[in-house]
Each structure stands twice: as C-alpha cells, then as structure tokens.
Amino acid sequence: MKNSEKQWQQGNLVEVEITDVSDRGDGVGRWQDRVVFVPDTVTGDRVSVRLLRVKSQYAYGGLIQLLRASPHRLRPSCIVADKCGGCQWQHVHPVYQQEIKRNLILQALQRIGGFVEPPVAPLLAIANVLAYRNKAAYPLGITEGGAVRAGYYRKGSHQIVNLNQCPIQDARLNPLLAQIKQDIAARGWSIYDERRRQGQLRHLALRIGRHTGEILLTLVTTDLQLRDREEMAKIWMQQYPNLVGVCLNYNPHPTNAIFGDRVECLAGRPYLREIFAGLELHLRPQTFFQVNTEAAEAMLASILEKLDLQGSERLLDAYCGIGTFSLPFARQVREVVGIEIQAASVEQARHNVALNGITNIRFEVAAVEDWLPRQSKIPDIVFLDPPRKGCDRIVIETLLRLEPSRLVYLSCKPATLARDLKILCQSGQYRLTHLQPADFFPQTAHVECVAFLERDRVS
User: Fold this and answer.
1) φ/ψ bin of 47: left (φ > 0), alpha (ψ from -120 to 50), beta (otherwise)
2) Which of 18, 171, 214, 410 has the fewest CB atoms within 10 Å, i.e. is most exposed?
3) Do residues 271 and 341 share a domain?
4) Which range marks the domain in which residue 118 is found?
C-alpha cells in the first residue's frame, strides 16, 4: 500500500489548505488529489484535520488545529459557537459570508441551471448580523443534578448545549430564557427524555414582534396535565411586561417536529401582534413567518420595486402561508388569489386580511400542484414561494402551459431554484431577467433569493 493510501484512512491527521466553501457551509480543501470537507473553517485557513468519514475521492474531517488563520476569520461572538449547532459561521467575517452566499447562487445557476452569465445582483443585506431572529424553539433537557437545560443541539448530535442567552436571537428574549429554566425546575415539571420517550416538557418556544415588542411564550409538552400551569403563566405575565400570552402546545408524538396541532392558551392571548410592511399581522405559536423581519421587509421592497405594479394586475400567490406577501401585494394590484395547503394558515390569512380591511384578496385551501392545473384563467403575475424541495414538476409544466406574463420565484435553496429555472427557461418561453439574493440568516450558510422571469414575446 502506498504511503498516501495509508494516510487516507479514518482517524488519521492530514494538513489541508481551505480554498472554497461548500453549499452546506463547510470549508473545502484538498489533500493531494482528494477533497476534504471541514466544518468550522473558511477560505484561507490552513488546518490540521482528523479524517472522520473517508471515501475513495473525498472525506469529511474534524478541525484539530488552526495552523494559519484566514484573513476572513474572526473571533465568534458566542462562547459556545464551536459547540452549538445553531450557527455555522460566527468565525467568518460578515462581509465574506455575503460574498460566499452570492457565489453559491452563481454556482448553482451555472452548474445546475446551465445559465452562462446569470443576472445575479449584489446580495441584499441588513445591518443586523446578530440579534435578528424573532423566534427560537429550544429543546429542553435536565442535568444529573436536576437543573433544567435549554439550548440548541451540539453539532451532529442531539446533545443540548445549555444557553442562558443567544447572540442571534432578539436580545429582548434573553432574560426569559435564563429565568424560565429556573422556574420550570422549581415547579418540578418533568422534562421529556427522547430516548426513553418519557416526561412532559419538550421545548421552550419564544417569539417576539420586532416592531411591536410583544412576546409570546409557548411550552411544548407531551400532555396537558402540567400542575399549576395557569398559576405559573400568570406569574410570568406579571413578571415580563412585554409578554402578551403564554401557551401550551400538545405534541405527544415521537417525531422531530417541534409543534403539535393542539394549543391551549394559559394566560393572555394566543398570538402576538406584528407590523410587517405597514400592515398588522397576528402570529400564533405555530405560524410560519420569516425569522428575520427586517430582511423580509427589504426583500419585499425589492420585489415591489422590480415589479413596478400599475394597479391593474391579477396576481397569484402560490404557497401563500398566512398572507405575509399577499397582503402587501394587494395594496398595489387589482386582485390577489392565495393558495396554501395548510388550512390553519389560510384561516389566519383570512383573519389578517379582515384585520387590515383588505377586500381584493381571496384564499383557497389546496395543494398548488392540484389547484393550478384546473385553472383556465391566466393571472398576469405568479408569485412562487415553495418549500425547500422546490416546485412540483406539474406546477412547472402548468405554468409553461398557461404562460402568465411574469413569474416571481422566491427560494430558500439555490439548487432547487436552479433546477426549476432551467425547466422554465430551456424552451425559450421565459427569460430570467434578474435574480436578487438576500441574507435572511446571517451566521449560517442559508441564503434566500428571488428570481424574476418574463415571458418571451416571440415564443
């Protein structure tokens, strides 16, 4: 066996120069002619790496020693950044984070989408790269001494890294995180053990309205029989002036899903008020809402500017959720139709429409891939905001058949966006005219982007 083959074995140490960053956020280097993926590194680092998972041409490694620091590296703001799985990139300078994200989108469009010179604009970023998250859901655990732990899981495991504050969540939530753990322990409420599937409390969820300051606290539990739960909820309401509601969410199922379907309001109200783009929204414990309010508002402003709406357009908002984008669109078009598969989200969307006195929107509960092929009336604009897996193929095929004048595609995964754009543009029916990336999740490798497509008039 050659010396290189002997060295290319699990558990061995190799020295690597990091030359790139993968779409998962790991540093990428080469040892001889093989690729090594190394978390917690950045382009320009020279590192000693222990090989952990080894294949013939690539391996995943663990950082052992930083031999030479990259100029893009900085000291993390969080003392547990090297352990906690909540962030990936606190060691990476924010400006370089933004450069990496734009490059990830370019690479996806070129390699997957086949676009030679994709029209990708500079990344849209807001000033706050810390303390931006408007919600957090912390799994709960307990120490051998009986102290309650709450925090994110350690990287690559289900071991909780205990936190009393988190630098990426809204700082107004930190006092609750530290104190409520002590209150739970004092009450003697049992903590869920996911291995034994025993115990009551599973998660502590906190949500705040960035513009209103209203806070909603939710305990996720395997049963609804927490003793003295209303008494404790009232104490919390008195203790924290911005706390507008305390809820209990029932999730008895052995699943990675945080929330169950049933919610009981213990004190106050089961929602908080938030102002988004000048409109009032009510957000409940399970409501999907962008975790970076300011970035979402900046993205919306960019979309509206690019669309240059005249007030006569008919717009379809596919995968509309609670109407976060539908409502602002409605103020500038003739009619909006929103489609969403989750009935609870549609109910809340209708509530938000009534709350704001908007009359030119209607919502329907349906899967987009079922609803869209049945339509014969063509909207002027289709706004797509699908889950990470992208659009179902039948949705893409139906759009190509109906040929609305413009498509706007908001995506949280560049690879699936590039795949779908390739299908939409390869026949020449649509042209990709602009793509705006945005940094919704600083300190992580996640990036949002919105693509604008126009129907080719000569097709």
Assistant:
1) beta
2) 171
3) no
4) 95-127+292-455
412 is catalytic: yes
Look-up: residue for tokens 């003392």? 79
List Cα–Cα distances, 100 to 190, 292, 372, 435, in angstroms.
Answer: 44, 19, 36, 16
- The model's pTM is 0.93
* Burial class (CB within 10 angstroms; exposed 0-12, middle 13-18, buried 19+) of 346: buried
Instruction: Write the single-letter amino acid at 275.
Output: I
Q: Maximum CA pair distance of the chain? A: 76
398 vs 420: CA distance, rounded Å:
13
For the CA atoms of 430, 433, 434, 435, the dihedral, rounded to the nearest 10 degrees, stands at 30
pLDDT digits (tens, 9 = 90+) for 376-411: 888 999 999 999 999 999 999 999 999 999 999 999
Q: What are phi and psi of 230, to 5 degrees?
A: -65, -40
User: In this structure, which amino acid lies at residue 235?
Assistant: I
Query: Do residues 267 and 385 both lie within one domain?
Result: no
From the list 84, 87, 391, 412, the catalytic residue is 412
Q: Are residues 114 and 169 in the same domain?
A: no
Other beta carbons within 10 angstroms of residue 261's beta carbon come to 10
